[in-house]
Design brief:
Length: 499
């Protein structure tokens, strides 16, 4: 059982993490290191090595060997499932420790980090079942002389690149599914949030994963990340991050035609009809933008609300946002933590300035919050937002919500779809016809009706339009990491071509 520690303190000194290749942790040794300061406190907490190109080659070679000699893909599903279940157990044992490092490096509230790690345990448990149930198809209708089988085979060496907003959760929405398929992995976490990815590699090793199946390289995106996406011995890439870097992945895939899974940005609508339970909707909309300080690819950053209730509703949302507790991420009571990077902090503040300059009406927030160290921004609500404004169009990746009224269902759908993205959307109404019509016609890979930001291991994740390619999680997630092989089996004597 986890002991929920009430008061957590900062580490006495930064902790050194090694990267992980071929079943072993590798210390920085002579390499340069990246030192990470906790965004909630401004105090150095961790150091990771900056891997060299040779380190990356070693990691890919280890994953290649582990794939080619079938030490993992050649096991039966039950044996793979046993490793995944053991990993789930070990994550449960280390839940508090993982959550602590997630909070230190990312700045998210500790209670939230703990819940996310809890969700990751479920991912491993669910994927363990998929390791056993993954199957192909058969065709018994090809006539007496032929039998057809379709098998699923693991794609090979998979590169996994993750962002800093949910370092452990996003990783665990991929790793157990990739492993269930029989593939091997080289993961590259964001340079600012690498600790928990390294911990997962250690946990998997302890759970009995053969050496070389899970490798982790650390370092910057422009050096080691770019080298990973360009690598000719990587068969598939799962990239989660910005649409801009997603484009680099598409270009890099031209090298060896590696398969791609891309989970990119979003500018997600929350559509609120006058007939919704407005109390619920206000709470959900506030949560949808302020959770993880709006640094979610699926944050509901556009509030598209029926004009007849817009004025009252924006007040209700503002009241919720003003009441939510912004504070030290290590404090159990905190609901909104720190902004994860200095660059992101500057970006969010510049969008708040832009909103004012472009004539939007600031309803609440709009300022930095002084918590006595670190960087914090009050959740911010803008009214009178028009579609051409930057705060209505760009993914801000921060707690900034743009209110835009509509007059008809058609207009709401059209406004919701007026974006290059198609990651997620929510609709709030008690009218089933409207809910279904909007669900069908809004272009988004994830949809919520009278709720937002919920999820679990069963349902797939991914986007329409410029929000990405492919799906992660659920049975669909495992299937992404397989390729199909058609097997034709002739039965009996062949009808000869040459007599
Ligand atoms: P980012 O694209 O800057 O970085 C993501 C990862 O890519 C990091 O590990 C980074 O080191 C690496 N990277 C950077 N440049 C690279 C390059 N040239 N080649 C290879 N790798 C490179 O994104 P971020 O700032 O970490 O995260 C924010 C973005 O991620 C937002 O746009 C957000 O919408 C998106 N995101 C999407 C999802 C999703 O599931 N769709 C989830 C989380 C975040």
């Amino acid at each position: 059982m986890n002991q929920h520690v009430k008061t957590l303190s900062l580490p006495a000194k930064p902790r050194d993490f090694g990267f992980f290749v071929d079943g072993k942790s590798v210390a920085a040794d002579g390499r340069e290191v990246f030192e990470r300061a906790s965004p909630g406190h401004g105090v150095p907490v961790s150091r990771v090595p900056k891997c060299t190109p040779q380190d990356l080659d070693d990691a890919v070679a280890a994953a290649r060997r582990a794939f080619d000699d079938r030490r993992w893909s050649g096991l039966n599903g039950a044996d793979r499932a046993a490793v995944l279940l053991k990993a789930a157990e070990l994550i449960r044992e280390r839940q508090d420790e993982i959550a602590y490092w997630e909070t230190l490096e990312n700045g998210k509230p500790i209670s939230q980090a703990r819940a996310e790690v809890g969700g990751c345990i479920g991912m491993f448990e669910y994927a363990s079942g998929l390791a056993r149930s993954l199957h192909g198809d058969s065709f018994n209708n090809l006539g007496d002389g032929m039998f057809g089988i379709v098998t699923r085979e693991p794609v090979g060496v998979v590169g996994i690149i993750t962002p800093w907003n949910f370092p452990f959760l996003i990783l665990c929405e991929r790793v157990p599914y990739v492993l269930a398929s029989g593939c091997t992995i080289v993961a590259k976490p964001s340079e600012v949030t690498s600790a928990t990815t390294i911990m997962l590699a250690e946990i998997l090793s302890e759970a009995g994963l053969p050496d070389g199946v899970m490798n982790v390289v650390t370092g910057s995106g422009s050096s080691i990340g770019q080298a990973l996406i360009d690598h000719m011995d990587v068969d598939m890439l799962s990239f989660t991050g910005s649409t801009a870097v997603g484009r680099h992945c598409v270009k890099a895939a031209a090298g060896n035609f590696k398969k791609l899974g891309l989970e990119l940005g979003g500018k997600n609508p929350q559509i609120v009809f006058a007939d919704a339970d407005l109390e619920d909707a206000a709470d959900g909309v506030a949560f949808g933008i302020a959770f993880n300080t709006g640094q979610c690819c699926v944050s509901g950053s556009r509030l598209i609300v029926e004009r007849s209730v817009a004025q009252d509703f924006e007040k209700m949302v503002a009241a919720k946002l003003e009441k939510a507790i912004v504070g030290d991420p290590l404090d159990e009571a905190t609901q909104i933590g720190a902004i994860t990077t200095d660059a992101q902090n500057a970006t969010i503040m510049s969008y708040i300035d832009k909103g004012r300059e472009e004539g939007a009406r600031l309803i609440s927030g709009g300022t930095a919050v002084d918590v006595g160290g670190g960087q914090y921004i009050a959740p911010t609500l803008f009214g009178d937002v028009t579609r051409d404004m930057a705060i209505a169009r760009d993914e801000i990746f921060g707690p900034v919500l743009a209110v835009m009224p509509f007059d008809s269902v058609e207009e709401a759908i059209e406004m919701a779809n007026d974006t290059v993205y198609g990651l997620a959307a929510s609709v709030w109404t008690k009218n089933i016809d409207k809910a279904l019509m909007v669900t069908r016609r809004v272009q988004a890979g994830r949809f919520w009706v009278n709720t937002t930001l919920s999820g679990g291991p069963e349902l797939p994740l991914g986007g329409f339009k410029q929000s990405g390619w492919g799906r992660e999680a659920g049975k669909y997630g495992v299937e992404e990491y397989t390729q199909l092989k058609s097997v034709h089996i002739e039965i009996g004597k062949r009808a000869h071509w040459v007599e």
